[in-house]
From TrEMBL:
FPG-type domain boundaries: 229-263
Protein name: Endonuclease 8
Protein species of origin: Kosakonia oryzendophytica
Record carries keyword Transmembrane: no
Binding site residues for DNA: Q70, R125, N169
Purpose: Involved in base excision repair of DNA damaged by oxidation or by mutagenic agents. Acts as DNA glycosylase that recognizes and removes damaged bases. Has a preference for oxidized pyrimidines, such as thymine glycol, 5,6-dihydrouracil and 5,6-dihydrothymine. Has AP (apurinic/apyrimidinic) lyase activity and introduces nicks in the DNA strand. Cleaves the DNA backbone by beta-delta elimination to generate a single-strand break at the site of the removed base with both 3'- and 5'-phosphates.
Formamidopyrimidine-DNA glycosylase catalytic domain ranges (all copies): 2-111
Entry annotation: catalytic residues: P2, E3, K53, R253
Pfam name, any one: Fapy_DNA_glyco
Length: 263
């Protein structure tokens, strides 16, 4: 399952292909949207926002395409006019003079006015996205210490998109290792110093992963590169304390941690 950094990078790829250029063609498979496609021609895609696994494609005319990929949906970039060879079912095609973006297989798609966007049930449910660079550690701290979340165990809380969107399983285990925290704790049990560290790390690890994961030429980057410290490392030695990394299942997902230094 892709997590926030991978979803944001996919959105970056779509933006790089068509952002700011007038649309020459728009097409939707859903009958309810077909008649509205022509109205988008001539408009520009201003930006593509991510909210967890939802993508919000904002058009210059004020409408937003909401799409949620669930398990099967996938976006592709193609040349203008190109029909990629695939067995997938095309749902959306948005084209400019030179490039097109295509959404396959997803079925959770809607074209929304700003008022409808503000009332969308998924978006009302989901928390702020860790890859939204406007989100600060202070805001995360306030959320962590709120009555709603302060007594929730980290093992479940860090997978709950209502708390923060964009976190997933590898980020959950890496964030807790980085903070030296055991998964059964909650924010109410931490010192102020620990809460500060966790608030900072809840943003820093996803953003480091977004900026550097998969980067081949390490010399081009100054500073830290993202690498897994415990994820998929059961049986290996912890680089911080030398303890043996263990694996279990928490909140129905594989969980990795170092019993030596996560308390
Ligand atoms: Zn350790």
């Amino acid at each position: 399952m892709p997590e926030g950094p991978e979803i944001r990078r996919a959105a970056d790829t779509l933006e790089a292909a068509i952002q700011g250029k007038p649309l020459t063609y728009a097409w939707f498979a859903l009958p309810a949207l077909q008649t509205r496609a022509a109205g988008l021609v001539g408009q520009r895609i201003e930006r593509i926002e991510t909210r967890g696994k939802a993508l919000l494609t904002h058009f210059s005319g004020g409408l937003t395409l909401y799409s949620h990929n669930q398990l099967y949906g996938v976006w592709r970039v193609a040349a203008a006019g190109e029909i990629p060879q695939t067995n997938r079912v095309l749902r959306v095609r948005l084209e400019t003079a030179d490039r097109a973006i295509l959404l396959y297989s997803a079925s959770d798609i809607a074209l929304l006015t700003p008022e409808q966007l503000a009332q969308h049930p998924f978006l009302l449910r989901v928390g702020p996205d860790v890859l939204d660079m406007a989100l600060t550690a202070e805001q995360v701290k306030a959320r962590l210490l709120s009555a709603r979340f302060r007594r929730r165990q980290f093992s479940g809380l860090l997978l709950d998109q209502a708390f923060l969107a964009g976190l997933g399983n590898y980020l959950r285990v890496e964030i807790l290792w980085e903070c030296g925290l055991a998964p059964q704790h909650n924010a109410a049990q931490l010192t102020d110093e620990q809460v500060d560290l966790l608030s900072h790390t809840l943003l820093a690890i996803p953003r480091l992963s977004y900026h550097t994961r998969g980067v081949v030429d390490e010399n081009r980057h100054h500073g830290a590169l993202f690498s897994f410290k415990v994820f998929h490392r059961a049986g290996e030695l912890c680089e911080r304390c030398g303890g043996v990394i263990e694996k279990t299942t928490l909140s129905s997902r594989p969980f990795y941690w170092c019993p030596g230094c996560q308390r």
